[in-house]
């Protein structure tokens, strides 16, 4: 199971990458996709949608369950991964690359400090 060192994590099994330009890229972790199983559908809020931390911003549907995606940060959705409409299974095969889900233009970058480090996240999934 892969858990990149350079990302931040949430207790809801999402990863966050600070892009260094006021935006963050968000997806679900390798652990999460493994627990969900084969992902068949991803539904995300629209670009321009304003979110508060912990708001539901989408759903991930797998063969055996549906899971909600939560905003780990407050801000505006600046981009969604539209390729997931046609190929949701990319989340299973490449959760940290092509399987990214949304980008948020952060309204409060200090919220990044509230996220888990890789070591803190590994303790949760151990």
Q: Helical amount among residues, as a percent range? A: 10-25%
Largest sheet: 6 strands, antiparallel
Number of strands: 9
The total of helices stands at: 4
Number of domains: 1
Uncertain ranges: none
Q: Looking at CATH, which topology would you report? A: OB fold (Dihydrolipoamide Acetyltransferase, E2P)
Overall pLDDT confidence: 97
Distance between the termini: 11 Å
CATH architecture identity: Beta Barrel
Q: CATH H level: which superfamily? A: RNA polymerase II/Efflux pump adaptor protein, barrel-sandwich hybrid domain
Describe the strand arrangement of the main beta sheet, using strand numbers: 1-2-3-9-8-5
User: Quick one: overall form?
Assistant: globular
Category by helix and strand content: alpha+beta
The whole-angstrom Rg is: 13 Å
């Amino acid at each position: 199971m892969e858990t990149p060192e350079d990302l931040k994590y949430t207790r809801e099994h999402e990863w966050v990458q600070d892009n260094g330009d006021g935006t963050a890229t968000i997806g679900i972790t390798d652990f999460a996709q493994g627990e969900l199983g084969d992902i068949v559908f991803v539904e995300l809020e629209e670009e321009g949608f304003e979110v508060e931390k912990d708001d539901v911003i989408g759903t991930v549907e797998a063969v055996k369950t549906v899971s909600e995606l939560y905003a780990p940060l407050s801000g505006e959705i600046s981009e969604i991964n539209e390729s997931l409409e046609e190929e949701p299974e990319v989340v299973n095969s490449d959760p940290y690359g092509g399987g990214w889900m949304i980008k948020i233009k952060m309204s409060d970058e200090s919220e990044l400090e509230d996220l888990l480090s890789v070591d803190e996240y590994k303790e949760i999934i151990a």
